[in-house]
Amino acid sequence: xxxxxxxxxxxxxxxxxxxxxxxxxxxxxxxxxxxxxxxxxxxxxxxxxxxxxxxxxxxxxxxxxxxxxxxxxxxxxxxxxxxxxxxxxxxxxxxxxxxxxxxxxxxxxxxxxxxxxxxxxxxxxxxxxxxxxxxxxxxxxxxxxxxxxxxxxxxxxxxxxxxxxxxxxxxxxxxxxxxxxxxxxxxxxxxxxxxxxxxxxxxxxxxxxxxxxxxxxxxxxxxxxxxxxxxxxxxxxxxxxxxxxxxxxxxxxxxxxxxxxxxxxxxxxxxxx
Length: 273
Prior knowledge:
With 273 residues, the protein is an alpha/beta fold. It has helices at 58-68, 98-111, 125-128, 143-155, 158-163, 187-200, 218-226, 240-248; strands at 11-16, 19-20, 23-24, 29-34, 37-43, 46-53, 78-86, 89-96, 141-142, 167-172, 178-184, 209-212, 231-234, 252-258, 261-266, 271-272.
């Protein structure tokens, strides 16, 4: 694995003893591992969620999470972001519009006091499976553009090359030109960072595609559709629930993108030779 040329907040050096061909090497050598840090999100002073994430691109992460979770409607609802290291973790404090704060408080009050098994009680299922407006755009995309963009994303996974421990999410235009890549130890976090970066840079993402170095779960489709992107391509498999949501949300879902292969699970008409 390559060695970082400068200090990075997203990885740290450690010592490792190698085993090669079944034999334990004598001595140890330097290696790099990805950082995994508790990141707490606060909205107008209200503690909302804490995730384990890679401590990089946290402004993108905060905005992307807020958009994909329906806490805000647009990046314009965010008035400010402060990042504060605390207690061995990081607190990201967001100031959001009053209307969004009122909605968030109403949601929290509705969920308060509920008990039960699974997803915090049956009543919370609508929060998880909340409806997503169908994507209204999405021009035809050549399969070679999708395959090429995935190859380019793999070549730009710098933190993965150093540590071997992170996922990536990327955005490319319909022509396959890769414009953004974000990495994180969590696949959902990587996609949230990408969604946030697209919003903060005011990029018109709808005509392009999202690429992920992971499987395609329901939440990955949900976040892609929320961002208004009509094509999601994953290295690994989708779930059945992800396929159903992609079908309903007018998202073209591709899985098993490896070398020159892929499988199309929903709206294959959008992908052309």
